[in-house]
Amino acid sequence: MSIASAGTEQRPSLLLVDDDSTLRERLARAFRERGWDVTTAGDYDEALAAARRESPEYAVVDLRMPGRSGLEVVRDLLTVDASTRVVVLTGYGSIATTVDAIRLGAVNYLPKPADADDLLAAFARASGEPSVATSERFEAPSLARAEWEHINRVLADCGGNISEAARKLGIHRRSLQRKLQKYPPSR
């Protein structure tokens, strides 16, 4: 059965793990409209409890969540069932986290914002199915965008503490504040 289409006999199962309830429910609705059996979770504990109840065939996991990270969710989901196909979804993408996610067993990695079609294409690419509306051209982020993502990742790791983030980045606190006032650069 193709990932993009669900038959009437067996609906593919999907676990959506994201702390953003609006995004989570929007994606859940889009997958349900495509005939998928969807379970949602807002954090690590909910995700693992749902996976233990009924192991999903597919999972979409947000990288950054309060408490335990999405990478821990990926690792432990695959401990529950190694055949679960996981796509990591994040607003703070970096090469290091992409490598970590793939090493832990994720089949693909997408930056936010992503919709149901993007996720279906990511699952299809990972399984070798031909995808119709995907661009295989990789566009590297600009240096300014990479810097902005790194700064925001460090700031998130510091719990929003600008002084601590500035120390870790090796820049003055006021310089960091000025950089944070700017809008994110386009890719």
Automatic annotation (TrEMBL):
**4-aspartylphosphate is carried by which residues?**
D62
**Keywords in UniProt for this one?**
DNA-binding, Phosphoprotein, Transcription, Transcription regulation, Two-component regulatory system
GO biological process terms on file: regulation of DNA-templated transcription
Q: Give GO terms: molecular function aspect only.
A: phosphorelay response regulator activity; transcription cis-regulatory region binding
Transcription regulation among keywords: yes
Q: Cite a GO CC annotation.
A: cytosol
What InterPro entries does its record include?
CheY-like_superfamily, Homeodomain-like_sf, HTH_Fis, Sig_transdc_resp-reg_receiver, WalR-like
CDD domains assigned: REC_RegA-like (cd17563)
- SMART domains for this protein: REC
Q: Which residues form the Response regulatory domain?
A: 13-127
> Which PANTHER family does this UniProt record tie to the protein?
REGULATOR OF RPOS (PTHR48111), TWO-COMPONENT RESPONSE REGULATOR ORR33 (PTHR48111:SF1)
Name of the protein this chain belongs to = DNA-binding response regulator, Fis family
Species the sequence originates in: Myxococcus xanthus (strain DK1622)
